[in-house]
Design a protein that fits this description.
The complex is a heterodimer of chains A (about 600) and B (about 350). With about 600 residues, chain A is mostly helical. Chain A has 29 helices and no strands. Helix content of chain A is about 70%, strand content about 0%. In chain A, helix 5 crosses helix 14, helix 8 packs antiparallel against helix 28 and helix 27 runs antiparallel to helix 28. The relative contact order of chain A is 0.12. Chain B has about 350 residues and is of the alpha+beta class. Chain B is built from nine helices and 19 strands. Classes of the chains: A mainly alpha (about 600), B alpha+beta (about 350).
Chain lengths: ~600, ~350
Amino acid sequence: MVSLNTTNQNSLLIRIKIKISRLLLQPSFIIGLILVIILTYLVIAPIISIFSNSVSLTMMDAMLSGGKDGAFTYKYIDRVFTSSISEKIFWTPLKNSITVSFFATLIALALGLILASLVTSTNIFGRRYLGFLLIIPYMLPSQAMATAWLTMFKNRKISGPPGMLESFGFTPPDWLAYGPLPISICMALSYFPFAFLLFSSALSKIDIQLEEVASTLGAKTKTIWTKIILPLLIPTTMSVLLLTVARTLGTFATPYILGTPAKYTLLSTSLYSSVRSNESGVVAVLAIVLSLIGVMLLLVDIWVVRKWQRFITVGGKGIKRQPSKLGLFRTPTTIFAWLIFLLAALGPFVVLALSTLMREPGNFSFSNFGLAYWTGVNVPGMDQPGMFTSPEVLTALKNSFLIAGSASIICGVLGLLIGYAVVRLPGTLISGFLRQISFLPYLMPGLAFAAAYLSLFAVARGPIPALYGSISLLILVMVVTYLPYASRSGISAMMQVGPEPEEAGMVLGAGFWRRIVSILAPLQKSALVIAIILPFITGMKELSLVVMLVTPGTELLTTQSIRFLDFGYTQLANATILIIGVVVMISVLILNRVTKTNLASGLGG
Amino acid sequence: MSEIKLNSLIKNFGGNSLAVDNLSVTFPSGEFVCLLGPSGCGKTTTLRMIAGLERPDSGEIFCGDQTYFSSNTGEYLKTEKRNLGLMFQSYALWPHMTVFQNIVFGLDMKNVSSSEKDKRFEELEKLFQLKNLKNRYPSELSGGQQQRVALARMLAVNPNLLLLDEPLSNLDSNLRLEMRAELKRLHQTLGCTIVFVTHDQMEAMTLATSIAVMNKGIIEQLAKPMEIYKNPKSLFVAKFVGSPQMNIVDFNDGEQLASSLLNKTKFDKIDVKTLGIRPESIKLTSKDNGDINGTIETIQPTGADWIVGLNILGKSIFAISSDQPPGNENDIIGLSFKLDGLHAFDRNDHKLEAD
């Protein structure tokens, strides 16, 4: 008996020794473990914090009503869903959000499908350029469209310089200037490029042989489209639908700029005003509702994709569809496509640019043009410095570069590290956990996530100081929000390279660091550059995520443009947006250089 | 020169069955061993465990007097320290390094002086006909050149043991023939132990000095190539090696043929479940002159010989004839069976031995 026991103990000890030595010998395991600890805090903690905030009494309410600070309460849930103000803070915004999302998505979907079909499959004029030009709205910050609209259609209802149409003597009615109609149109024009990209890519992936078979069986082009191509696009359509709805629900800038003057509130703006009035309990409840809607849409999308899997066509010889001849329709369709480009990309840009160059809106005489709003010399009608001399603009510019820059570098490196750990530890708990957790922020709209961060980092907790009001908080929240994209591209980059190059080095005697330096890093160079520039572009345009976290001194270009707008300095707001646009365009050009493809095919492929 | 010894190796990837199931085998020093089997039979896993890229769940691996792995003592020698050569199916040449950089990488790891590196490179350059390719990148090489660079990279450090993972499967058929000869010559000059993995039985037959046929994580038979072919120990081995496949028949499916074959052997019907006959052991004669009659279904001339599809009362089989078949499609001819290619298998699919 005794000897049996000792052997048992021995083998147990040996087994533990083997297990530990096995794990410690794997650098991917150590990296993975560190990542798990960091991400748990950065992703899970805010979510827990927001759930607890939704049901615990704030200090303010505790003092007012005599409860205990942090006590359990249904107060905020009641306030949002059943109280007398619930109509104002939740039910009406919900109704409005649904209305706007419905119309915006419908228009975006239709535009995307029609334009993608025209560009990929017909001989309209300039189809080669349209493929790139039509995705420009995607690169503009979301408030560009809204401020351009405002610059054009604004009436006397709100302060600041008059709109262009008003200066021409035509006063736009309120329904055209503010509220659901302009919000829907602006959102649709901002988001249709997304539909356009997905449809283009789906169309180019359909195996041309499926269509050729139909035509050998006697089908005409029209029949091929209605019986074969369009049915095959059903899964893409569903995806576009759900993801566009999710995007419109999370958008803050458009409803803030075009809805506020008409007191037309959406869920996103309602959440924002609750933040401004310091109602952290209500904020938490609203953020949870927004996230739940996001989760629901995503689950439906996953379900749809799975259900329609049989529609995914495999193979094909990569032969391009012959562009079909449009005949008589060639000119009208060409005009239509270019008109959309004009409305969604060129128009807003020109309107914004003109507004900053004209001393008085709508006066096209030569003497009215000048650089006053940029240089700050003789700025008409306000005691504001110009773009180049304003300390606020300079701070915001610096902050934008600092925040988006650091966030994107951290994000890119973190993404590749996650990719490394996930791909090298297949089938382990760590790999699965990292994959899931880095995807989690994708489910929450930026506003909700920011609210969660606000509640977590407003006060010091343990060793982590209160970060509210600091640049680091903004960097942190950006890193975590973009993590889903970064980790996904990191995982796919690592998958693409595969384990063999590293294993080949291992066999020849290269240790871990040597393998990283001589083999992995050079192989992932371009993946890393892309993984940094893409979040940088998004970060430069980011508004909804940061708008409730900035404080004076940590303003970004995007939030600064909103401040300018709040004060009625339309021209300065427009100039700020133009700067963002230019920075983004330059980044896109650099990206094209690096990847040696254009963004259209990059995002579409 | 070292022998490879695997002892009770077990590896589980979490599926329903083990990837490698209690494998114990010794590959003698200097052999050119082939692990042959269908995909998913555990052959690549076994190779990767020898290389140290995969860790066994339990068991032992020895190479000569070195312990590579032992779950009894907890010993584990890192891949980097095993001094072996491994060639991947994809070659895994580093795309960002030139031919020279790729080949001397292993020497760099050993801090070899640069004059010695150049000397070694020149030797390999000559051996593998890599003249003028020194500064090219892998993407600028043809498939055959890439393969030779991969071989040179592996051999640059004089490894004790060479491991090849489906080394020829990415080559076209002409080049494959050439590289087979190359590998065979290499084995003769180096004399070191080589373990290679393939699912191509032709490759295994032509290259190896001994073949281990694997199925579902175990080795069904380890023997010299001709022994494997002539004397398959199990139904699986009989079916897997040989092209066209051995004709397999049992009493439910082709009763007539099975009985006729059984009559040729000395076995009892009670012991026999399945019978197999190699296509080349079926001799074609005129009607009623053989052991049984059959109808010709198809004739495929290959140039060297004829592959004849036959039907015997509903059961289709193939025969290989080095003479012109004694009839055309739909003609009835006679078949006689030669004993050397005739095998009988029991209820457990083991070969029945005549005693």
